[in-house]
Amino acid sequence: MKKLTNFCVNLAQRFLPDPFLFALLLSAVMFVIGILFNHQTPFEMIIHWGNGFWSFLAFGMQMALVIILGNALATAPIFDKLVQRLAEIPKSPKQAVAFVTFGACVACMIQWGFGLVIGAILAKEVAKKVKGVDYRLLIAAAYSAFLLTVLTSSITLKAASNPAELLVVSGGVLTEVIPLARTAYHPVTLSVLLILLITLPILNASMHPSPDKTVTIAPALLTETKKEIVRPEKPTPAERMEHSRLISILVFVFGMVYTFNHFAIKKSSLDIDIMNLMLFMFGILLHRTPIRYVKAIGGATSNASGIILQFPFYAGIMGMMTGVNAMGVSIGALISEVLVSASNQYTFPFLSFLSAALVNMFVPSAGGQWAVQAPVMFPAGAALGIDPALTTMSLCWGDTWTNMIQPFWALPALGIAKLGVRDIMGFCVVVTLWSGIIVSTSMIVWTLFF
User: Fold this and answer.
1) Distance CA 204, CA 412 (A)
2) Tens-place pLDDT, residues 57-104
3) Closest by alpha carbon to 252, among 290, 301, 299?
């Protein structure tokens, strides 16, 4: 295990470029693919790229807020003390890695954005407490838990809601929704999640480098500089409002009333917007005064620079992937159709899983992947007599699996940890290999026995 891990780490350190350059390389690859295989002109590909370039603005803002609000909450005195208490549980480097993995896995099963934030924050705090633990591996371990986010994936949620949209996107094949009980909460899916929950902490702990190859970090470098904000002895009216705890409490109450309506009255599920709202409300409450929260947000904002820089280029890649040629065929549909044409009733789920894994490298968004592949996969699956729930999960698992080697979703964790993608990707390759065996086997078991 150590030899495999060292090989993968060295490979990533030498050949994996900065995530921004990785996005540019993927853009170039997609540009060439569109010209050579989808018979589009360079001008048409540039137009597709430009049309998609700003399509991630709302999503990019959501993810930037995940980083900023998560960091700001982590610096609140009460929350900081809670995470410190949890970080004192592991006593050795391997225990630390396993503990962070398990904690992040549980958080990711609750909600994917929540898991990204909590896992990275917990990893940073554990790195302060446990001597000799490899900081890179801690962050990689926290990110590996992202494999367990299928319970709240956009793909399974879209398949379970809005029958009118589902009818259109499936080409008229699906006339009713696919309940989560048949996809995310199917016995095979739950079995895979249980196996990952048990084995990922063990796998990540086993990858811990020997002392001579361990990369540690000084706790002082992980400690946020906090400048105490003191209320003036004779405050002006403006300063009174800035230091008013009542204002913070009122804002928190407003947010909690809305949150109560979201969950208790509307019976809605946890999504990225409501999670950010709760991060916002608890952050301003726990920092006690508006001006302290303003300073906390200001200190956390720089961590979102990777999101701001790279998301437009991934949106441009998706624009090239979904842009159609003169015959109305997109590159995403072309990739799906090629794999579908080689399928039969036994190989279709596995091949659709692989196609989703490939498409995810260029469209690392579950919602975007749904738009690209669902119109092709559902009609093809129906023609072969494949359960649409299995088709849904093959797309979902393919999208989730290659996230381990696609830097897009690692950006929030890396922003919080202040690391580069090269630091964690070698460990993530090993996780990709192991999880690929588990998920592939589950596709085969579901196809043959369910």
Assistant:
1) 20
2) 887 888 788 878 887 887 788 887 888 899 999 999 999 999 999 999
3) 290
How do residues 135-163 score in pLDDT, each as one tens digit? 999 999 999 999 999 988 888 888 888 78
Place of tokens 């400048």: 227
pLDDT surpasses 90 at 1: no
Contact yes or no for 227/295 (Cβ under 8 A): yes
Contacts of 285 (CB under 8 A, 6+ apart): 248, 249, 251, 252
> Among 337, 411, 399, which Cα is nearest to 362's?
399
Q: Which of 143, 128, 140, 133 is nearest to 208 (CA)?
A: 133
Cβ-based neighbour number of residue 10 at 10 Å? 12
Phi, psi of 448 (to 5 degrees): -85, -30
- Mention every residue, 6+ apart, whose C-beta is less than 8 A from residue 265: none
User: What is the token pair recorded at 328?
Assistant: 């109305």
The residue extents of the domains of the chain are 2-218+238-449
Residue 31's closest CA among 243, 238, 319? Answer: 319
Say which residue the tokens 């790229």 belong to: 49
Residue closest to 359 by CA, chosen among 321, 391, 389: 321
Summarize pLDDT for 3-32 with one digit per residue, the tens: 888 888 888 888 877 778 888 998 999 999
- Total H helices, total E strands in the chain: 23, 0
Asked whether the predicted pLDDT for residue 253 surpasses 70, the reply is: yes
DSSP secondary structure letters along 304-352: GHHHHHHHHHHHHHHHHHH-B-TTS-BHHHHHHHHHHHT--TTTHHHHH
Question: Do the Cβ atoms of 169 and 415 come closer than 8 Å?
Answer: no
Distances (CA, A) of 161 to 156, 179, 269, 297: 9, 8, 12, 35
